């Protein structure tokens, strides 16, 4: 009823969500709840226990109110122009992106822009140092004037990227967009091998060779997603399959929340992988404050990762892939 009395169509930027959430809570009478909690806190143990229960209830209501405001912002963002729409899609968490029909087009456009930028970087980096001898020889025909500069060409590095994605229900949306993004850049990342796991582990490269990225991702999630994530068994399977192919030109990217259901974490196998490859990157869709909460064991994996970052939105993903491409030059 409180939401029905508010006009959410006036929200124009993502930062207004906090303001509208506070307004919604005030319309619901949350101020009286705050006063009641203060009163109960001054009483005896039973009243203080009641105050704590009310605080927990208040947190849950605030989360529900924030979720409602977020959905309203997503629904009404369409009328604010393409730039604002894209800004919103790039910033919202992956789990909310399905509410946008244009997200696939945006992912492809972002990937093409990043690929074009990387190709320009590659052209410049391969140019190498000035080749003085060739420049002087070529200048003889112009009376010794170096009319054209010649550069030593750097050899092309045969980089390989191996991606391992947790496709369990808690992180499947992040895996979906990471895979779509990487395979949309096949012009500059031609040697990508992909693996996915939840309760079991399998290579999914062939799915992307046979189908478009969005279709391939759907097939992979249908086949492998579920509960019961086992990171220790995943690392062991990956090592058995790929040990001979791991070398100093290989980058291993792991996307997951490191929630291992209290099973053996397999950090010693990740250490073996790290010693063999160029670098291991870990992308975690959760906030850093939650990386070691509950059954998450991120602290056991961090010593073996060259880089570990939160990856919860398209903006995060673009920055990470850009850093990856720079490192492959």
Helix and strand topology:
Blueprint: H1 17-27, H2 30-41, H3 45-76, H4 82-91, H5 103-125, H6 132-139, E1 160-166, H7 172-183, E2 192-197, E3 201-203, H8 205-210, H9 213-224, H10 231-242, E4 250-255, H11 267-276, E5 279-284, H12 298-301, E6 307-310, H13 314-328
Helix pairs in contact: 1-3, 2-3, 5-7, 5-13, 7-9, 10-11
Highest CATH level, the class of the largest domain: Alpha Beta
Count of spatially separate domains: 3
Gap between N and C termini: 57 Å
Q: Write the H/E string, N to C.
A: HHHHHHEHEEHHHEHEHEH
The fold-level CATH name of the largest domain is Rossmann fold
Give structural notes:
- With 329 residues, the protein is an alpha/beta fold.
- The chain has three domains: 3-88; 106-123 and 157-328, von Willebrand factor, type A domain (Rossmann fold, 3-Layer(aba) Sandwich), CATH 3.40.50.410; 127-156, no CATH class.
- Helices cover 51% and strands 10% of the residues.
- The protein has a six-stranded mixed sheet, sandwiched between helices.
- Helix 2 packs antiparallel against helix 3 and helix 5 packs across helix 7 (172-183).
- The longest helix has 32 residues, at 45-76.
- The mean pLDDT is 82.
